[in-house]
Amino acid sequence: MSRAALLVLADGRFPAGGHAHSGGAEAAVKAGRITSAASLEDFCRGRLHTAGLVAGALAAAAALGVEPRELDAAADARTPSPALRGAARRLGRQLMRAARASWPSAELDALAGEFPKGAHQPVVLGVAARAAGLGPADAAYCAAYESVSGPATATVRLLSLDPFDATGVLARLAPELDRVADAAVEAARRVLDEGVDALPAASGPVLEIGAEWHAAWPVRLFAS
Amino acid sequence: MTATGVRAQARIVARADGRGGTALPVLDGEGPLALRRTRAGGDEARVMVVGAMSGPLGGDRFSLDTRVEEGARLHVGSAAATIALPGQAKGEAHYDVRLDVADGGELRWLPEQLISAGGSDLYVTTRAELAAGARLVLREEQVLGRVGEEPGRLTSRLTVRVAGRTVLDQQLSCGPGAPGGWDGPAVLAGHRSVGQLVVVRPEFAEQPVAARMLGECAALVPLAGPAVLVSAVAPDALALRRLLDDALTRLA
Amino acid sequence: MHLDHTHHGPAAVSADAHRPDGTRRALRIGLGGPVGSGKTATVAALCRALRDELSLAVVTNDIYTREDAEFLLREAVLPPERITAVETGACPHTAIRDDISANLEAVEDLEDEVGPLDLILVESGGDNLTATFSKGLVDAQIFVIDVAGGDDIPRKGGPGVTTADLLVVNKTDLAPYVGSDLARMAADAKAQRAELPVVFQSLRAEPGVTDVAAWVRGRLTAWAA
Questions:
Q1: What is the dihedral of CA A196, A73, A6, A151, to 10 degrees?
Q2: pTM of the model
């Protein structure tokens, strides 16, 4: 295993489509719920402990070799918003392309064959981590970090927020991100014995409702 | 500490009576989960949960199992809101609800609100298992704190399975001690009432309902299966109920 | 979808000239250039000029998601299923250069859903003079500038002006009104681009998009050869 592969996979410039998604930040900005670095931090903290935890556990379980089809169904059940399910599958498909080019693997090929229109992004992320020789903790860290880095980057563009402030938010969340990644891996290991019901199902109602609101706008900057 | 919490169990079985109505061969409740059959509406049996005590308190463990058999129709409501309170016993309270609906059966599960009072710590688990041809209307409303009060800690998980496949699995954690950001712009955004309405109908598999907003704080969404979810946040219980009632009317 | 079983082969990662089923994919031509230079109008004119002889489709990359796609729909230059909008998260150049994954999905979906296609035009969101398309996304690119943007743009150069396979100087009808010197623009472009072609066009008068359409036909002939 190459530790540096984690840097490649987690790099914000990894060409897997994330730049066009705000992780709900665009809706929160328009609703007046994110107006500053402080409210961005509050948003990111909530997203980390809900969508971030679930994504981390899905990715870790996929990295452990849990059947991707079951994980994908579990992701559907944990994503009531069809707009978010669609975004997760589009991002999964885009990540699949980048991952297959980066770490060719029979498991990635099989997953792409099974989900030609894309599996949920965290599931693809976990299988990609496996293909890159990474472990469940790496996958969980990637997914959990993406759950907050996406909104932070988007808010810099949407509010012209000082980029140093946004980066400070991410740095302050790091200890919580450690705990979320640990919890995600622990849940993923339980999945090996107990099945996918052991995955966390933490939800943010405002994220889900906001995603549907956002999807209905005629004009928007971000895809989700 | 010697105090242990209350254990209370209740069971309901609804069975088609063969004459177009629904019988209740099992209607067992106790203490805080006393059950009462009320006047039936048409072919539907009606049951009211009448809490004889307030609760659940810390350390209490309630469970309520409901089974609707083939072709039976059951409506379950509650006489008043359930209030989670801090108790003498240490530790969290648990309230587990298990709902099973067989083919051709219909369950309308419409209890009053769950109020999380300051200092309480309650885990609610609601698990619905439906056969492929079963129908369900399920409403769940949580109110964080009584008027002017900080909420207690509430962890609520709702799982709905249809024909063995999980179509919804959602957990909400809020109140002091919940994971960070629960009151922030991604989770509750300062709202004090949050609710879900799940409607499962076999015909949704063929004719899915389109997603739509119901105002700015509620959305009606098709789930990945023959089910629809209305998810809503509101400033108070009354506003929340209005949103969910309105949604139910639209789906009728 | 009949394609569910055709994706098992090696990944069509990006610039492969063939689709997973072995058939040759459509030629992809990118159109970039600054805001307001007439990219969308040129795409619309190309569609009108070519739609009777070719099977074609368009991908737009709006800054505000669907504006350009909706212009094309309103103008009815192609049936709606042949026009797809890609959302770019406020960074149109990222979507055509640094992370082309969403655009690749869009062109592949168009081929799957309305194909076979001969040509896909990929229009970038209006950006700056440095925005160019990745070779992983398009086979050739057209950079569209206009005379009203300043007649010093060809002299200033930049990746779009210097390296695009075709430079289009649009809105020549406005030159007298904005004081642009077309001869000077042509000389500067020649200096920057050496042998690469330049077309001066006005879509408000004959021959309109004819020269650009002829260039596209030439690329198609080379692609199909």
A1: -110
A2: 0.92
